[in-house]
Amino acid sequence: MQEPRLLAKPPVCRLGCLVLVRNPRGDVLLVDPDYMDGLILPGGAAKPNEPPHLAAARNLRAETGLNLRLADVLAVDFTPADRYLERLNLVFDGGTVHDDTHLTVPPQHRSGLFGARFVPVRQLHDVMAPSQAARATEALAGRALPVLLHGQRAT
């Protein structure tokens, strides 16, 4: 088999790895970033060559202290280039955490976050930007895709 040719200038696309976490009442965990208006799903960008489910888990742990195993994608959201690079956002299923689960948000100067909290689904459109709320709403529809690495279920 012949070696694949590499692109001289590969396309640049940011990969966002977000997590939908709920409490027993169905409220959605959101973080409050200091760099934009409104609340967003926890998560962040994948590092080069980092599997997306591990990137999502790493960012979730860094932002909230939650250490969850992520194996299913609930939504895929492509955002065309505007003032930022084009980006592909994957929303992973973080499942449901207990009411007594403690969130640990690092100080704002280290995390870029004012805090994190669970928000009732009916209030998502009040506290999130329209595109962010639409992404979360679609992820709540409950359609899951398995995360695959080279055709095998990720663990």
Overview of the molecule:
- The protein is built from four helices and nine strands, in the order βββαββαβααβββ.
- The chain is an alpha+beta fold and 155 residues long.
- A hairpin with a 7-residue loop joins β4 (72-79) and β5 (87-96).
- It is globular and about 55 Å long.
- It starts with 13 loop residues before the first strand and ends with a strand.
- The relative contact order is 0.26.
- The model has no long low-confidence stretch (mean pLDDT 90).
Keywords:
single chain; 155 residues; alpha+beta; five-stranded mixed beta sheet; two-stranded antiparallel sheet; 9 strands
What fraction, in percent, of the residue positions are helical?
A: 10-25%
- Output the helix-strand order: EEEHEEHEHHEEE
- Give the mean pLDDT: 90
Number of helices: 4
**Gyration radius, rounded:** 16 Å
Strand order of the largest sheet: 3-1-5-4-7
Structural class: alpha+beta
| Largest sheet: number of strands, sense, barrel closure | 5 strands, mixed
Low-confidence blocks of residues = none
How far from one another are the termini? 29 Å
Q: Estimate what percentage of residues fall within beta strands.
A: 25-35%
Gross morphology is globular
Strand tally, please? 9
